[in-house]
Write a structure and sequence with these properties.
The protein is mostly helical. It is about 40% helix and about 5% strand. A hairpin with a 7-residue loop joins strand 1 and strand 2.
């Protein structure tokens, strides 16, 4: 419709047209809303994102590395390397030298070849 046709219409005709357009528009909005809600429901059912903001519980991780300069600073070996680890590595130390149990001889050094496991004899 062009604006001249609208200007020539009576108030009752314009009001009827307004109600028709409003009704059609409301139906289309409801249809779009239903589609979006269905899409959101499918995304939520597939999503592995946290539910209700609750993370799944992880077991506590014991520290694996200790700063020789400051024994209070420890690192589990997970995530980004702390600054003290990077500084120790830059000075030429190996990560194995920072292991908490390394001085006890309980952990084999990476430099040494690994010994094959012996099979029990029958």
């Amino acid at each position: 419709m062009d604006s001249n046709e609208l200007r020539s219409m009576s108030t009752d005709e314009l009001w009827g047209l307004f109600e028709k357009v409003s009704s059609i528009l409301a139906d289309k909005i409801e249809g779009e809303k239903a589609k979006l809600n269905e899409r959101l429901r499918r995304i939520e059912s597939v999503s592995t994102v946290r539910v209700n903001g609750v993370r799944r519980p992880y077991p506590p991780v014991r520290p694996k590395y200790r700063n020789p300069s400051n024994p209070a600073e420890v690192w589990s070996g997970r995530g980004k390397q702390p600054l003290w680890v990077r500084k120790q590595l830059k000075t030429g130390k190996k990560l194995n030298q920072l292991l908490i149990g390394a001085n006890l001889g309980a952990i084999q050094r990476a430099d040494e070849p690994k010994k094959p496991a012996s099979w029990p004899s029958r």
